[in-house]
Amino acid sequence: MTAPDLSVPLCGVRLGNPLVLASGILGTSAELLERVARCGAGAVTSKSCGPTPRAGHPNPTVLAWGHGLINAVGLSNPGADEEVRILRDAKARLAPLGVPLIASIFAETVQGFGDVARKVAEAAPDFIEVNISCPNVEAEFGRPFAADARDAAAVTAAVRRAVSLPIIVKLSPNVPDIAAIARAVEGEGADAIAAINTLGPGMVIDTDSGKPILANRTGGVSGPAIRPIAVRCVYDVSRAVRVPVIGIGGVTCGRDAVEMIMAGATAVGIGSAVYYRGPEVFAAIREELRGFMETHGYSDISQMRGLAHDA
Amino acid sequence: MTLDLPTAFRIRDIRDESPTVRTFTLDGAVQAEPGQFVMVWLPRVNEKPFSLVDDAPITLTIARVGPFTEAAHRLRVGDRLWLRGPYGRGFERLARPAVLVAGGYGAAPLAFLARRLRAEGVEVAVALGAKRACDLVLAERFRDAGCSVHLATEDGSLGHRGLATDVAARLLDANPDAALYACGPEAMLQRLAHLCRERGVPGQFSMERMMKCGLGVCGSCDHHGLLVCRDGPVFSADQVLGARGDFPSPCGRA
Ligand SMILES: Cc1cc2nc3c(=O)[nH]c(=O)nc-3n(C[C@H](O)[C@H](O)[C@H](O)COP(=O)(O)OP(=O)(O)OC[C@H]3O[C@@H](n4cnc5c(N)ncnc54)[C@H](O)[C@@H]3O)c2cc1C
Ligand SMILES: Cc1cc2nc3c(=O)[nH]c(=O)nc-3n(C[C@H](O)[C@H](O)[C@H](O)COP(=O)(O)O)c2cc1C
Predict the structure, then answer these.
(1) Are residues B127 and B52 in the same domain?
(2) Are residues B54 and B105 both part of a single domain?
(3) Cβ within 8 Å of residue A23, ≥6 positions away
(4) Inside any domain, residue A211
(5) A249 touches ligand 2 (CB under 6 Å)
(6) Closest-approaching ligand to the CA atom of A144
(7) What is the pLDDT of residue A214?
(8) How far is the CA of A195 from the centre of ligand 2 (A)?
(9) Is the pLDDT of residue B59 over 60?
(10) In Å, how far are A131, A225, A234, A288, B251 from A228, measured between CA atoms?
């Protein structure tokens, strides 16, 4: 049998393997993005960037609570102007490695999304990922756009008008019908869908002081604890739309990545696993995935994609 | 063993080291390597990184520089503070004479290192620097551990007038086989890293960057693609000076 081919096409861009660094993990600098690419990621996503600089929430912002992480980083970012410089630098470092760059953006308003997208496109990333699903800024921004099909569609349309780059829209699991949101954003021109952002929000209380530990009190839950929910969301979304899906949530090993692909994912996001296994996790999962394909006689990722749909 | 969630410890003893620096000894222990740090949480205030001065009992030396450290200095014996960790890569102890260089509260992780090195029978010389005599901290701890202590003050009020780096250079002249271990202001670390490179001295440097998660995920403590919280806080001279392709993990060297 020939060696399995791990490469996947995503909106006409080739990824050397399906593993994608998820937004908000290590994506704060060009050098870190390059490091993750060298560690074996098939694509890397930058930390979500908004129109203007934000410090984010005070600490504690991230906790390892036992079965996953909980975070309320609060969208800290240097603002779109500085982000363009970081993304240009990142693009130059990634090009020789053949690793595509996904630039994640957020904004408070529909029009703001268009503005940030236009700005960030100056750096010529391979994709723009539209983060409409952060649960940690509700107090300031109100309900995430991902919570309502019309809002999600309006943001997608604004970004679609602003840029010609492929657009990935990142959805929230915290909705009764994620497939309906997925259809709405596909209808407005999303080229791909990323699912899921963090679950919740959740809360962890210190029983000695009786106080929530996160300074924001609540935070988004990620890691192994959310994997079955992420898998179900990816299953629902990939059955509802024709565009490719980046399956994200709780993947920490090759078997988990296979599960996402069988649920219908074209690519697989890796976030919290960087905490459990370090940046080396990308090469490790890639080799576990290769081993699985060899053992089970798969020569191509597409042979596994959506297998669960027939059940 | 790492404490994943902030865990409460009672303060057993507080000692004034200088007008702005205080050492807190807690009721309780963790298992740590010198150079590792903990995230200290004060509910409703903030959570910030501090080096361990000792792990049994847990000992922290905190300089008052802003809102969090001011709140820490308001704590009294019997009050509680919370910490998670220890985190990060500590110093690797080499079996050769040691020159320790501390600037200001940079003495904190080095006092822990000095105790371990001495317990292993290593000869330890310490260059301890500060602006004024009253700002020199932890000198007693180094002496009690059996180190030779060499002081430097910028205003000349005690010991050598000048920088700890000058003293360090002299100590290295006298000890060409020595390894250097340093913690202090960035400019001091940069200068010492150059010195180590020029002389071929093995050097290890504990660095600071704005730290948030402490877990190696948020990317806020990035130093040229290295994470101070996970790959550090202790780095080699090349890493301090931002040499490329020098990640501690094998994949970084591709
Ligand atoms: C690995 C490590 C070990 C440290 N060990 C010690 C120690 O043993 N003793 C000690 O007194 N201090 C230590 N520090 C520095 C200490 O964390 C800061 O002095 C403290 O966070 C200041 O908080 P603040 O609210 O009082 O002051 P702020 O007004 O918030 O800040 C004052 C200065 O402290 C630094 N600082 C602030 N927040 C952080 C942060 N989250 N991470 C890193 N630096 C920050 C910045 O340089 C800032 O300019 C260490 C830092 C690191 C990264
Ligand atoms: C510390 C942290 C920060 C995050 N920041 C962002 C962000 O800025 N933008 C975003 O779209 N998602 C962000 N996320 C969500 C992740 O990209 C991912 O969707 C989620 O964590 C689920 O995947 P995981 O279980 O592999 O971590 C963040 C997650 C964590 C843990």
Answers:
(1) no
(2) no
(3) A45, A46, A47, A48, A102, A104, A129, A131, A170, A271
(4) no
(5) yes
(6) 2
(7) 98
(8) 11
(9) yes
(10) 22, 8, 10, 20, 30
Q: Is the CB of B48 under 6 A from ligand 1?
A: yes
Ligand of minimum distance to the alpha carbon of B233: 1
User: What residue has token string 């001065």?
Assistant: B53
Question: Domain ends where: B30, B53, B87?
Answer: B87
A276 touches chain B (CB under 8 A): no
- CATH number at A142 reads 3.20.20.70
Reported pTM: 0.96
Residue A209 lies in a domain: no
d(CA A93, CA B222): 16
Of all residues in chain B, the one with the smallest CA distance to A212 is B43
Q: Which of B64, B87, B110 is the last residue of a domain?
A: B87
The pLDDT of residue A138 is: 75
Do both B199 and B113 map to the same domain?
A: yes
What domain range includes position B29? 3-87
pLDDT tens-place string over residues B131-164: 999 999 999 999 999 999 999 999 999 999 999 9
Domain count across chain A: 1
Chain B residues contacting A, CB < 8 Å? 4-8, 39, 41, 43-44, 46-48, 80, 82, 212-220, 222, 224-225, 227, 230, 247, 249-252, 254
Q: Tell me which residue in B48, B225, B254 faces A32 most closely, judged by beta carbons.
A: B225
Q: Which pLDDT belongs to residue A137?
A: 77
Euclidean distance between CA atoms A7 and A5, whole angstroms: 6
The answer to whether the beta carbons of residues B22 and B138 sit under 8 Å apart is: no
CATH number at residue B161: 3.40.50.80
